[in-house]
TrEMBL record:
Domain of life: Eukaryota
Keywords: Endoplasmic reticulum, Heme, Iron, Lipid metabolism, Membrane, Metal-binding, Microsome, Monooxygenase, Oxidoreductase
Catalysed reaction, written as an equation: all-trans-retinoate + reduced [NADPH--hemoprotein reductase] + O2 = all-trans-18-hydroxyretinoate + oxidized [NADPH--hemoprotein reductase] + H2O + H(+); all-trans-retinoate + reduced [NADPH--hemoprotein reductase] + O2 = all-trans-4-hydroxyretinoate + oxidized [NADPH--hemoprotein reductase] + H2O + H(+)
Name the record gives this protein: Cytochrome P450 26B1
Topology term for the membrane: Peripheral membrane protein
PANTHER family, sorted: CYTOCHROME P450 26 (PTHR24286), CYTOCHROME P450 26B1 (PTHR24286:SF177)
UniProt GO molecular function: heme binding; iron ion binding; monooxygenase activity; oxidoreductase activity, acting on paired donors, with incorporation or reduction of molecular oxygen
Any one GO CC term of the record: endoplasmic reticulum membrane
Ligand binding (heme): C440
Family: Belongs to the cytochrome P450 family.
Length: 511
């Protein structure tokens, strides 16, 4: 008996010793890890390094970031200030918030900083993507892409965009169950990118298969770059290879069968524009450009569309005011969307609609920021940013902390009205599409898509939240509601539309 208890005590003592050793080892390795990064400071510069923690060896603070979401940046910003250091996705990183700091980073492209996405993003998007190109090559590629988003091009995409949105809303309304708006908005933006933008004639089955593969790709674009079986990175690479094969097939089929098309899609324009600019795109370039365009449009537009639906649900007075504006412009009549009324110019004339979309993108910014690398050591907010370190300029945190926005957490579209113009108080307080030479190329297309969706929602749909409360918002990898936003859509006959028009007038009178 005595022998047994002795055994137990010694086993416990051994276990305790092991735990203490592991804890000590972890603490020492963590200290060495912090020192390793402190040693990379530029000794010729007298300024201190930004404050912050580099987390644990190799993984850094990646796990904290994934679990805490937007709380991660907010908590560190409060603790260390607008410029702080951390270690994410296998890289040391300096996170930058605030209009003045962001201005310096964005305007310093090609001199102070250069684009550099995390290794996973960079590998998955490929060397020919815009995101990975710099300097003169970047400038030339943007020029080739610019035509895809010109006024004429947008005008020609608009009827197709409207058609895809109308079909989608009909499907949502005919579903007897509530739908997950985020999931369906992802499908909608994928559909828009593949069929409207790229003009691929893929069957519904192929589209579904491409969509699932694309989701695997997007889910792993921001992953630790560890190429081993079962890692997210390996899954992303496999998804990219499958997508490239499918896209090559679709491009070849498209080139052989160009009859019966009533508009030039983005891929047609891209191929033409490449020829005009003396740099015909190879098949590999076309595949990478195609995946990049779908990627850039997919998650961002789906996130913004979901936020738009959520805000219209939360603020019926805003929806009523939107309807009022559509009526005043002859777009909505007797509760029906007038045939052919939606043209690019008429959409651009809708000032309140513009304010609503801008406010959605301010308060629910889909992209949290952009990645750069310091090309030389430079000063930011009194700290040194050492050459070679990654810099992430922050969009969401800059919006959240901008003093120019009164009552910053409130959804208030009127802040963008001509009378208040809060965004005009400084260029870099409001930047949902980034800024400088890498400003979002698709921003006018994205805005057009969101406006068309808002017009269709306001004129042809009735929708109700299917849960008791609004869901929590998650910000990683892009901003979205935790449960996807469960909403019941109802089809409207013209009688219901007229009733809705009347009730809006009453509501409008009380706004
Ligand atoms: C609401 C929707 C969207 C948002 C919020 C958004 C946001 C952004 C942001 C912030 C950047 C700059 C990233 C950086 O500074 O590194 C960017 C770049 C880019 N976006 Fe968008 N985007 C949206 C939709 C689209 C769409 C629909 C397309 C095209 C179909 C597109 C194409 C691009 C491209 C090609 C770039 C890279 C530009 C370059 O590196 O020169 N985006 N976007």
């Amino acid at each position: 008996m005595l022998f047994d208890s002795f055994d137990l005590v010694s086993a416990l003592a051994t276990l305790a010793a092991c735990l203490v050793s592991v804890a000590l080892l972890l603490a020492v390795s963590q200290q060495l890890w912090q020192l390793r990064w402190t040693a990379t400071r530029d000794k010729s510069c007298k300024l201190p390094m930004p404050k912050g923690s580099m987390g644990f060896p190799i993984v850094g603070e990646t796990c904290h970031w994934l679990f805490q979401g937007s709380g991660f940046h907010a908590s560190r910003r409060q603790k260390y200030g607008n410029v702080f250091k951390t270690h994410l996705l296998g890289r040391p990183l300096i996170r930058v918030t605030g209009a003045e700091n962001v201005r310096k980073v964005l305007m310093g492209e090609h001199s102070l900083v250069s684009v550099e996405w995390p290794q996973s993003t960079s590998t998955l998007l490929g060397p020919n993507s815009l995101a990975n190109s710099i300097g003169e090559i970047h400038r030339k590629r943007r020029k080739v892409f610019a035509k895809v988003f010109s006024h004429e091009a947008l005008e020609s995409y608009l009827p197709k965009i409207q058609q895809v949105i109308q079909e989608t809303l009909r499907v949502w309304s005919s579903n007897p169950e509530p739908i997950s708006v985020y999931r369906e908005a992802q499908r909608l933006s994928f559909h828009m990118a593949v069929r409207v933008l790229l003009g691929f004639r893929v069957s519904d089955d192929e589209l579904r298969h491409l969509f699932h593969t694309f989701q695997d790709f997007v889910d792993n674009v921001f992953s630790l770059p560890i190429d081993l079986p079962f890692t997210g990175y390996r899954k992303g690479i496999r998804a990219r290879d499958t997508l490239q094969k499918g896209i090559e097939k679709a491009i070849l089929e498209k080139q052989h069968c160009s009859q019966g098309k009533d508009y030039a899609d983005a891929l047609d324009i891209l191929i033409e524009s490449g020829k005009e600019n003396g740099s015909e795109l190879s098949m590999q370039e076309l595949k990478e450009s195609t995946i990049e365009l779908i990627f850039a449009a997919f998650a961002t537009t789906a996130s913004a569309s979901t936020s738009l639906v959520m805000q219209l649900l939360k603020h019926p007075a805003v929806l009523a005011k939107l309807r009022e504006e559509l009526r005043a412009h002859g777009i909505l009549h007797n509760g029906c969307l007038c045939e052919g009324a939606l043209r690019l110019d008429s959409i651009c004339g809708l000032k309140y609609l513009d304010c609503v979309v801008k406010e959605v993108l301010r308060l629910y910014t889909p992209v949290s920021g952009g990645y750069r690398t310091a090309m030389q050591t430079f000063e930011l907010d009194g700290f040194q940013i050492p050459k070679g370190w990654s810099v992430m300029y922050s969009i969401r945190d800059t919006h959240d902390t901008a003093a120019v926005f009164k009552d910053v957490d409130a959804f208030d579209p009127e802040r963008f009205s001509q009378e208040r113009s809060e965004d005009k108080e400084g260029r870099f307080h409001y930047l949902p599409f980034g800024g400088g030479v890498r400003t979002c190329l698709g921003k006018r297309l994205a805005t057009l898509f969101l406006k068309t969706l808002a017009v269709e929602l306001a004129s042809t749909s009735r929708f109700e939240l299917a849960t008791r409360t609004f869901p929590r918002i998650i910000t990683v990898p892009v901003l979205h509601p935790s449960d996807g936003l469960k909403v019941k859509f109802f089809g409207l006959d013209s009688n219901q539309n007229e009733i809705m028009a009347e009730s809006d007038e009453i509501l409008g009178a009380t706004v």
